[in-house]
Amino acid sequence: MRTLVRLALTAVLVGSLPVIGGCGGGKSETLYPVSGKVMHGKTALTGGQITFFPDTAKGNNSKHSPTGKIGSDGSYTLTTDGKSGAPAGWYKITVSTQTPGMGASTPGEPGKVAPLNPTQGPKIDPKYMNEMQTPLTKEVVVSGATADHYDVTVQ
């Protein structure tokens, strides 16, 4: 009987080793290239910022909100914690024609306020600046994405 109990206990312990070994990894998430253009109708935005917020409703539990500066031709490239790319998954996308500064929360740093630096260009509907209201969503994929996969258009 003792041998049977020992065997059962050993099986349970050995079976849980992969789980124990995989916990507390502290590994950073793999980042995938994300770039595109931000358009206002048929015209490229000429400045501002784009932020991808993880869409937990679609299973993205990343702790990161990748951001990118919108260039004068409307192009952007996302970075996450200073590294190029974004973790895979679904995101809600916000676009602002103002860059972080006084009066605006800095993405990824809730409660930290920095000044707003308005850029020249069209005013966009405020819903695109709000994570809870934005209709913009994209999925960052591991492979097979084309450059225009991450293009976005605001009104």
Question: What attributes characterize this protein structure?
Answer:
155 residues; mainly beta; 4-stranded antiparallel sheet; globular; disordered N terminus
Task: Walk me through the structure.
- This protein has one helix spanning 2-21; strands at 35-40, 43-44, 48-54, 67-70, 75-77, 79-80, 83-84, 89-96, 98-101, 103-106, 109-118, 137-140, 152-154.
- It is mainly β and 155 residues long.
- The chain has one domain (35-154).
- Strand 1 (35-40) and strand 2 form a beta hairpin.
- The radius of gyration is 21 Å and the shape is globular.
- Residues 3-25, 102-106 and 109-116 have low confidence and may be disordered.
Strand content: 35-45%
Broad shape: globular
Major β-sheet profile:
4 strands, mixed
Beta strands, count: 13
> SS-based structural class?
mainly beta
Radius of gyration: 21 Å
Give the integer mean of the pLDDT values.
Answer: 78
Number of helices: 1
How many distinct domains? 1
Distance between the termini: 74 Å
Elements, N to C (H/E)? HEEEEEEEEEEEEE
Instruction: List the uncertain runs.
Output: 3-25, 102-106, 109-116
Helix content: 10-25%
Question: Which secondary structure elements does this structure contain, and how are they paired or packed?
Answer:
Layout: H1 2-21, E1 35-40, E2 43-44, E3 48-54, E4 67-70, E5 75-77, E6 79-80, E7 83-84, E8 89-96, E9 98-101, E10 103-106, E11 109-118, E12 137-140, E13 152-154
Parallel strand pairs: 1-13
Antiparallel strand pairs: 1-2, 1-5, 3-4, 3-8, 6-7, 8-12, 9-11, 10-11
